[in-house]
Each structure stands twice: as C-alpha cells, then as structure tokens.
Specification:
five-stranded mixed beta sheet; Aspartate Aminotransferase, domain 1; about 400 residues; alpha/beta; 2 domains; globular; eight-stranded mixed beta sheet
Length: about 400
C-alpha cells in the first residue's frame, strides 16, 4: 500500500481526542455532560413534517429540493440568514456575500484551503474548540495559543502574538465560547477588527451559539467593526437541527467567489433538501417563537447546573457563568479530571468534557489539568441536579473534603 499523506500523522492525536469527545453523543453513558447536542425537546418535529409535506407537494417544488443546487446555496435560505440572523443583530449584508455551507464546520475547512500553507501560523484561544484546531492541524498549520479571560480573547496578548508570529489567521468563538462559555466584550471586538486591518491578518469569527442567549445584551458582530479581513461563519445546528448539516459564511465578493470555487470542487453544493426545509421554517415565521422556546428551555437548565455546582462540588471549584450557549467551564484545583474520567464512567455512568483536550501545543505542560466542559442542553433540570450531586460527592471524596 502507498504511504498515507503526512497530514494524517499531524492530526492523529487531535482526532483521537475529538473521537473520544464525540463518542459521548452516541455512546453508552447513562448521563453525558460531555455532549454538545440540542435537547430532544428542541427539535420542531411537527413543523418540519408540515414543511416537508409542502416542499414535496408537487413536482415543481419537489424538483427544486432534490436537484443539484447553486454552490452558493438557495436564495431563499441566504435571504433568511440576511433577514433573521444578521440584520436583527446589526449586520447588513447582501445575499451575494452569503454562502450556505455543509454545517458550521465546513467554513473552517474551506478557509484553510483558501489561506493556509503548511507551516502557516494560526492564533487560537486558550482553550479552543477542538474540532477547529483539529482541522487546522490537518492542513499542517502551526497553532499558537492566545490568553483567554472572562471577557474573551486578551487583546494585548493577541497583538504581541501577531507581532511575534505573523499569523495568517486568527480563529475565535467570540460569543458563548466553546468550551468555556465566556463572551468577547464589545470593546475587544472592535479592537480585534482594528488589529486585523492594521496587521493584515484574516479573522474567522465562528459564531454558532450567538442566538442562544439567556441573559444580557446581544454583542455586535466583530465583522460589523471590520473590513474584508473578518470572515463570519454561523450554523443552523443549534437553532434548527444539527442533522440538517447547514451553516453559512459571510465574506467579501472576492472571498466568496474563491470559496465558492473551492466548495464546487469539494461537494458541488450543500444538501438542497435540508436547505429547502430550513428556508420554509423561516419563511413561515416559525423561527422567532422557536428561538424563544429554546432560550427558555436552556436558561432553566443552565440555572440548574450553576445551582448544583455551587451546592455539591468541592469548595475550591471555580466555574464560568455563561449568558448563553451550551457550556459551563469548571475547574477543580488539585484534581486530574482526565485521569479520573474512566473511573467516573465505570462507577457513576457519567462522562464530561475533559478540559485538557481543548488546549493546543504551546500551552504550559499540564494546562487544563483540573478543568472540564459541562454541557447542560441535553439533560433535564432534575437529571442535572441528581448527577452533578453524584459527581460532586465523588470529587469531594478524592480531595478528602
């Protein structure tokens, strides 16, 4: 057999960690705090059935949904992105600058194909979204971490790293960050756009959780402060359905043209059946009520998690208090939660996101040792309290508390 491409070895360790994390979505754990999927109650089955029947009610509408589509995506869905996801949050865009993608992950792959050569530097938050960093490693990029605090990416550290490494790309999840749940402040969003223009570096603003806000005020898009250096990506996975595999990119005329060429050679077009159903969901006016339902559902679960962490976890525990999204980031100093994970799974039937897997090379040895990403979207309030109590008592026993 011929040898595999070098990139397979480059990404091997990250893929292993990603597979371990993804297994919590479909694995045999009784209770998973490691998953990142919507609640079963969040799927609008009746409305999807109704829209599907309409889409396939006649040969004309049915044909549009099953034939090859535009590489840029259906106009109706691009218009929905413009009118329902961008304009209400203060970003004006023409549909010619919007491309529908195969999920929110594909934009990272397409942008790497457009910009990244082996050895190019990408700056990422510390910690960072593991699926994104794995893709970057697949393209043989060199990753350098940037400090993260309660207001998001540290701009002083970012500028210092830009000057030191001359990166090709900065990657950020600015709103309800994955994995920590923190949100980049408005001041830092503006500063990031300024730095991108000043130093001629591209920024991927990955914003899949933006709409899922439970408290506080919506922040402006980074792209609203910047020029063509800022490329925005989003996803329908959290607000519609992850199985639809729909996302989008907002970029300049030239960038969209080149990204469209790359996508054409990658998969021709995004699933037109999913696009047609999603477009119908927005066209019928279902989205706003559905979003309110999601936020009410998840707000209650977030609050249950925060209450349980404070009540049952070791007294030394620190955790974030996210205004939205799916995750709380917890730290228990003095514990190696990665080493304890197999025993927790075996004895308690519980899994969680191991925090250290979200740290890339370039971080200090042992970074994230006592940290974990805890998902609250997929469990009821009672299940969250019951199982965090078990987990907290287990950790307390390990600390002798």
């Amino acid at each position: 057999m011929p040898g595999y491409a070098r990139r397979i070895g480059t990404m091997a360790a990250s893929v292993g960690q990603l597979q371990s994390l993804s297994s919590s979505l479909v694995g045999g754990y009784k209770v998973s705090f490691g998953a990142g999927a919507p609640a079963v109650e969040a799927y609008p089955f009746e409305k999807l059935r109704e829209i599907s029947q309409e889409v396939f009610s006649g040969p004309e509408t049915g044909l549009d949904a099953v034939k090859y589509g535009s590489t840029l995506g259906l106009d109706s869905l691009r218009e929905a992105v413009r009118d329902h996801l961008l304009a209400p949050r203060g970003l004006e865009a023409d549909i010619k600058n919007i491309m529908i993608t195969a999920g929110g992950i594909q934009p990272m792959n397409l942008l790497c194909q457009l910009y990244i050569e082996p050895g190019d530097v990408i700056l990422v938050e510390s910690p960072s979204f593991i699926h994104g960093t794995t893709i970057f490693k697949m393209f043989e990029a060199r990753l350098e971490p940037v400090k993260l605090d309660d207001e998001g990416m540290d701009m002083e550290d970012l500028e210092e790293k830009i000057l030191r490494y001359r990166p090709k790309l900065v990657y950020t999840v600015p709103t309800f960050h994955n994995p920590t749940g923190v949100t980049l402040s408005t001041e830092r969003r503006k500063r990031l756009a300024e730095l991108a223009s000043k130093y001629d570096v591209a920024v991927l603003e990955d914003d899949p959780y933006r709409e899922i806000r439970y408290s506080g005020e919506h922040k402006p898009f980074i792209k609203s402060f910047g020029d063509d250096h800022i490329i925005l990506s989003g996803s329908f996975s959290k607000i519609f359905s992850p199985g639809s595999r729909l996302g989008f990119i907002v970029a300049s005329d030239e960038q969209i043209a080149r990204l469209s060429d790359i996508k054409l050679c990658t998969d021709t077009c995004t699933n037109t059946v999913s696009q047609a159903i999603a477009a119908g969901f927005f066209k019928r006016g279902y989205y706003e009520d559905h979003l309110k339902y999601l936020c009410d559902l998840y707000r209650s679960r977030r609050d249950a998690m925060l209450k349980a962490l404070d009540a049952y976890f070791p007294s030394c525990t620190k955790h974030t208090v996210p205004d939205g999204g799916y995750y709380v980031w917890a730290e228990i100093p003095g514990l190696d939660v990665k080493a304890l994970a197999p025993e927790v799974g075996e004895k308690l039937g519980i899994c969680y996101g191991i925090g250290s897997t979200f740290y890339t090379e370039g971080n200090p040895e042992g970074a994230g040792l006592g940290t974990m990403r805890l998902n609250f979207s997929g469990l009821t309030e009672d299940a969250i309290e019951e199982n965090l109590k078990k987990l907290g008592e287990y950790f307390k026993a390990k600390l002798g508390e």
